[in-house]
Design a protein that fits this description.
The complex is a heterodimer of chains A (about 650) and B (about 475).
Chain A (H helix, E strand, L loop, with lengths): L1 H10 L18 E2 L1 E4 L2 H11 L19 E4 L2 E4 L4 E7 L8 E5 L13 E2 L1 E3 L4 E7 L3 E9 L3 E3 L7 E3 L5 E7 L39 H18 L3 H5 L6 H16 L5 H12 L4 H14 L1 H4 E4 L8 H12 L6 H5 L5 H13 L4 H11 L12 H4 L4 H20 L4 H6 L2 E3 L2 H7 L7 E3 L11 H6 L8 H12 L23 H10 L1 H15 L13 E2 L2 E2 L4 E4 L9 E4 L2 H10 L2 H15 L11 H9 L4 H10 L6 E2 L1
Parallel strand pairs in A: 1-21
Antiparallel strand pairs in A: 2-14, 3-4, 5-9, 6-7, 6-10, 8-9, 10-11, 10-13, 12-13, 15-16, 17-18, 19-20
Helix pairs in contact in A: 3-7, 5-6, 6-7, 11-24, 12-14, 18-20, 19-20, 23-24
Chain B lengths: L11 H14 L19 E6 L19 E2 L4 E2 L14 E8 L6 H10 L11 H7 L10 E5 L27 H9 L23 H21 L4 H18 L8 H7 L22 H17 L5 E6 L25 H5 L10 H25 L2 E2 L2 E2 H4 E6 L16 E3 L10 E9 L1 H10 L21
Parallel strand pairs in B: 1-6, 1-9, 4-11, 5-6
Antiparallel strand pairs in B: 2-3, 4-10, 7-8, 9-10
Helix pairs in contact in B: 1-6, 4-8, 5-6, 8-10
Classes of the chains: A alpha+beta (about 650), B alpha/beta (about 475).
């Protein structure tokens, strides 16, 4: 009987229009609260406080220890063991093309044939190249302009080449080697952040509950930081740490940055006393550094304000933790941010700064649900090995495209329909594109973020694509609709069947009226992605049968609106979404959820102002962010 | 301060202040601990073992459960999916008729929220956290929450079953190596507790810097609380409790280790086999059995060495994508076909022996029960007083739905094992007709020495006849 009641309630679920939003009596969307820094925010805060932790800045690998480091994100970063660096010294450029040809690339003597192209560095007088080599013994030569084959004179190991000369030899043995330590990450041992069911982002204001494991994490981070920054206390403090005045001066400068507000003399003196009261000065400084990094004043961001509005310090943090995941810089805390126009100008500056990469990448990957791509299992029998590099490049593609669109005036339509992408070699190989890195035109069957491997991978199971997950992804994440849970006895994914296509296997959902109520909105949409398999590769057939990827987007403006669009390609689906009113409104709600860390209904009228500004801009992504910065939503807090 | 039953309970702060003071004078403190901690007839520790996606219970078409035992209270037979517990039949209690009632938000998430809280939507403290805060209040680790492939990036809070506060979960520690370092410190440790404390086993060493840091944190918590005038109070309360727990660990105080078990487990050289997985394999389904085994080993070791009394081990998460057909050396192993937990749980309307899902689901359910049996074996191998740690502990096997296909929350497949130090009458199948599972949590609290008559939103005084 219980099951019948649930079934009846559920049957009503998708046949009616969504209920309108509740209260919107002009109260602020967010309440007065404290917000606990999440893992990324804590990491960025620590690194901002102690910049020496971040490592050596670089523009090119030649600025680093070239043999063992590369320049990643403008920071010298250790190579993985599998990466080998070839270096060939030269007084001047040797020709138009120098490559490494060897047993690892079929002795390809030109870049066009697959040879490893070397980069000329006039500053250091050398050619260099890095590549990944598996375990084993590899032979190679340096080749100039496809014609001159030279032994690597910097490498004493060699073998006869069978032509009277010598091949150079590299022996690679990385099995079991520890991964490179990489840039220092004070949060390496932290528990992952959590979030309420259905909330896409790790910025929810109430989700982070402090337990002993989290406290232990902050303590350990403080200890690791203190170990590093206190190797030379004089350099950290900029004066003689044995002088009380030096300690006081250092803390007077440090605490306001750590707590992101002015501090009182009493507060400074409490820390000074802790330093002076320790057994010795080293221990005292440890207590200060670790105490600051575990202090609730650093860990929490109060949004309390005065008269229902954030104060200037809180506003600066609200903007910087939104757009940088990091504390405000001096310019931001010095600015008057009470006026919307000032916040708009500040947000524009923040977005132009490289630190905004933290927001741009994290927002889009959490919005679209890409985080599991790093670990979700795939059947090796069906898809071959899916390595970490491919997984990382999949997510990077979507993050990089989103960042480029926000920074270069791209629109929501571009996001959903762009005929170009930014992809690394592994993703390019998956797409059938020539090798390379950076911006490239997509093959004709792909368009926009909906065709990115990351999204297609994230919405699949280990051994099959999932029209359900893909349809639900569009409906819940891109259109902000909610669906009731499947009823009891809904049944699971139909078995993989070597004689049927996925679409045929799933037809039962819509053939069965008990399922059709909701699945009419989901499956027809998800079937439109069927040309892409569980790792995001294109397929013309499945189990010998041609793919039918005709899609149906029902009620794009919400259930019960009786709109309907069929589509034959992902580009058409993207265009239909971009032309809707529901998609930009949903994106607005998602940005507000991320920035304010609160659940807000998509049809909440308090979003209207930002939605309107977004529309007026022609749905320029950057305009949406600036409109929110300018809006009162950003600074008003309910008592 | 009063407990949930309105009775006064030991103030944590006064207990801690007492502990701190005694650490300074080097005195032994056992007399200051809550009487219940070592009272005869109270369970000394609790292990909660969670597995995902229910069991092959009664099917839609009326097939009998392949999990629930049948027979009379004292003369009963196990079913295929509970058969791995055959050797522990006389030290376990099985139930018929324990119901979670309806749930607010769907079968799996709704069940996971209600499982340990006994409140819809997880809108209450979970039983393990409650016991950690009460009877475990003076432990080094009030609560140990370990996971196997349960706290991956992006997992939403409803995937986790532990609720320190109404409506909000914490994620488990998924990496046994990190958990080992955190619990025991030692040469491999970074940060952590600062060493093994020599013959004291897991007892942490005194660390003056960390102690001063914690003083500083407590001072700042007080100042911030005063400055913000009420905003964030509940969060600061939890934060302070957590800091006090850390303070206890650096105090260099007493250990609660189980003498016989601690000798057998060798707390000075704690060893857990983590050799078969590295960072890159923590979420590889092929390594899942080894990871889960390491976490079970670790939970038992931590308890034997006196670090904690309350442990929760969460294997995967509800609606699990765990490919159990990749578990090497098990009957489920099939490299050519992916059988995921949730996939198998939807085996169809009837128990069809020719259905791939159905036969896999029976195997999966058996395997989970086998893991629980392993936990019991481990405890039974370690001496504690007159008997073994199994005799003095309580162990629960739990999952968030009954039958994985029907998603119902009636006749929940929960097992209570272990003698609870004489507090539980084991070797029985209790047919309760219809009784809310909140009552089992009341009984568990009572068995742990926490006097209470209700828990969650639907208890009525404990499971009758369960306790001695």
């Amino acid at each position: 009987m219980g099951a019948w009641l649930l079934m009846a309630a559920w049957l009503a679920g998708c046949d009616r229009a969504a209920t309108p939003a509740g209260s919107a009596d002009g109260a602020p969307v967010a309440a007065r609260r404290v917000r606990l820094l999440n893992r990324e925010e804590y990491r960025q805060t620590v690194l901002a406080l102690f910049p020496s932790l971040a490592g050596t800045a670089c523009e090119s690998a030649t600025d680093c220890a070239l043999a063992v480091q590369d320049c990643v994100d403008q920071t010298c970063t250790p190579d993985a063991c599998e990466v080998h660096t070839f270096v060939y010294p030269a007084a001047s450029a040797l020709g138009s093309e120098v490559v490494v040809a060897g047993s690892f690339n079929g002795w390809a003597g030109t870049a066009a044939a697959g040879g490893l192209r070397m980069t000329w560095s006039p500053e250091t007088g050398q050619y260099w190249a890095k590549t990944t080599l598996g375990d084993g013994t590899w032979e190679y030569k340096i080749v100039i302009d496809g014609a001159t084959w030279l032994q690597d004179t910097t490498n004493p190991a060699s073998r006869p080449d069978g032509f009277g000369g010598q091949n150079s030899v590299v022996v690679q043995a990385c099995d079991g080697a520890a991964p490179p330590s990489g840039a220092f990450d004070p949060t390496a041992g932290f528990l992952p952040d959590t979030r309420p069911e259905g909330f896409p982002f790790d910025t929810h204001a109430d989700a982070g509950v402090v337990n002993a494991v989290r406290v232990e994490g902050w303590l350990a981070a403080g200890e690791a930081v203190a170990d590093r920054v206190l190797q030379n206390p004089g350099a950290l403090l900029g004066c003689d740490p044995n002088q009380e005045a030096c300690v006081r001066g250092w803390l007077t400068e440090l605490l306001p940055r750590a707590f992101r507000r002015p501090v009182t003399t009493v507060e400074v003196e409490r820390y000074v006393v802790a330093v002076l009261g320790a057994a010795d000065r080293t221990e005292g400084l440890q207590v200060a550094v670790q105490g600051v990094l575990s202090s609730p004043e650093l860990l929490y961001r109060p949004e309390v304000g005065e008269g229902g509005r954030l104060n200037k310090w809180e506003t600066a943090s609200a903007l910087s933790y939104w757009l940088w995941s990091a504390p405000p810089d001096e310019a931001l805390t010095a600015a008057g941010l009470a006026e919307g126009a000032a916040r708009r100008a500040a947000a524009a500056r923040l977005l132009d700064d490289p630190r905004a990469d933290a927001f741009l990448g994290r927002f889009v990957s959490q919005w679209l649900g890409l985080e599991p791509v790093g670990i979700a299992d795939r059947s090796e029998a069906l898809y071959g090995p899916i390595d970490g590099a491919l997984r990382a490049q999949m997510v990077a593609e979507t993050e990089d495209v989103f960042a480029a669109l926000v920074r270069d005036g791209g629109t929501l339509r571009d996001l959903y329909t762009a005929d170009w992408t930014i992809a690394g070699p592994a993703v390019r190989a998956l797409y059938g594109l020539p090798s390379g890195d950076g911006r490239v035109t997509l093959p004709p069957e792909r368009a926009g973020v909906l065709s990115h491997a990351s999204l297609l991978f994230a919405t699949s199971h280990s051994d099959q694509s999932s029209p359900i997950r893909r349809g639900l992804m569009v409906r819940t994440r891109l259109l902000c609709e909610t669906f009731p849970a499947p009823p009891p006895t809904a049944g699971g994914v139909p078995d993989v069947d070597p004689t049927a296509t996925t679409r045929e296997r799933f037809a039962q959902h819509t053939d069965n009226p008990a399922c059709a109520s909701c699945h009419d909105y989901i499956d027809g949409l998800g079937f439109g992605f069927e040309h892409f398999d569980a790792v995001g590769a294109w397929r013309e057939t499945e189990n010998g049968a041609p793919i039918d990827a005709t899609g149906l987007l029902r009620d794009v403006e919400g259930r019960g609106t009786e709109t309907e669009a069929t589509f034959e390609s992902i580009a058409q689906l993207g265009a239909a979404l971009a032309a809707s009113e529901a998609a930009p409104r949903c994106l607005t709600a998602q940005v507000v959820r991320y920035a304010l860390g609160v659940e807000v209904a998509v049809d909440d009228p308090r979003l209207d102002g930002v939605v309107e500004a977004f529309a007026v801009s022609g749905y320029e992504l950057r305009a949406l962010l600036l409109a929110l910065a300018e809006s009162d939503l950003m600074v008003e807090r309910a008592p | 301060m009063s407990g949930i039953d309105g009775r006064p309970r030991l103030s944590r702060r006064s207990a801690l202040q007492a502990l701190g003071a005694a650490a300074v004078t080097g005195g032994a403190l056992r007399w200051l601990r809550p009487d219940s901690a070592h009272a005869a007839g109270s369970a000394r520790r609790l292990f909660v073992f969670y597995h995902p996606d229910g069991i092959p219970g009664p099917s839609q078409s009326g097939d009998a459960s392949k999990w629930h035992p049948t027979g009379s209270e004292t003369n009963f037979q196990l079913a295929p999916c509970t058969s791995p517990l055959e050797g522990f039949k006389d030290r376990s209690v099985f139930f018929r008729g324990l119901s979670m009632g309806g749930t607010d938000s769907g079968s799996h998430p709704g069940g996971a929220k209600k499982l340990l809280t006994a409140v819809d939507g997880g809108n209450g403290e979970s039983i393990d956290q409650h016991l950690a805060r009460t009877v475990g209040a003076s432990s080094y680790w009030r609560h140990l929450y370990l996971g196997a492939q349960a706290a991956y990036a992006g997992a939403s809070g409803d995937k986790h079953i532990v609720y320190p506060a109404a409506g909000y979960t914490i994620p488990p520690e998924d990496d046994p190596r990190r958990a080992l370092r955190s619990l025991f410190g030692g040469a491999a440790g970074t940060g952590g507790t600062g060493g093994t404390g020599g013959s004291g086993g897991g007892a942490p060493a005194v660390d003056p810097v960390r102690r001063s840091v914690l003083d500083s944190v407590i001072a700042d918590l007080g100042a911030m609380r005063a400055r913000l005038g009420g905003v964030g109070q509940a969060r600061f309360d939890l934060h302070l409790e957590a800091v006090r727990e850390l303070e206890r660990r650096v105090g260099g105080g007493v250990t609660d280790e189980v003498p016989g078990a601690a000798a057998a487990a060798d707390c000075a050289n704690p060893a857990v086999d983590t050799s078969s997985f590295g960072d890159a394999e923590l979420y590889d389904p092929g390594r899942f059995p080894a990871i889960l085994k390491a976490q079970l080993d670790l939970a038992v070791l931590a308890s034997a060495c006196g670090l904690t009394r309350v442990s929760t081990i969460q294997a995967s998460v509800h609606t699990s994508e765990l490919v159990m057909s990749r578990f090497p050396g098990t009957p489920m192993f099939d490299p050519g076909f992916d059988m995921r937990s949730h996939q198998a749980s939807h085996y169809g309307a009837r128990h069809d022996p020719f259905s791939r899902e159905y036969s896999a689901f029976v195997q999966q359910s058996q395997w989970w029960t086998g893991q629980f049996a392993y936990l019991l074996e481990l405890l039974d191998s370690l001496p504690d007083g007159e008997g073994t740690m199994l005799d003095t502990s309580l162990c629960l096997m739990v999952t968030e739905v009954c039958d994985g296909n029907t998603h119902l929350h009636d006749d929940m497949p929960l097992v209570l094992a272990g003698g609870g130090n004489g507090s539980v009458r084991t070797g029985r199948l209790l047919d309760l007709g219809y009784r809310r599972h909140a009552d089992l949590w009341v009984s568990v609290a009572n068995a742990m020495g926490q006097p209470t008559s209700w828990f969650g939103d639907a208890s009525s005084g404990g499971v009758p006849g369960l306790l001695a």
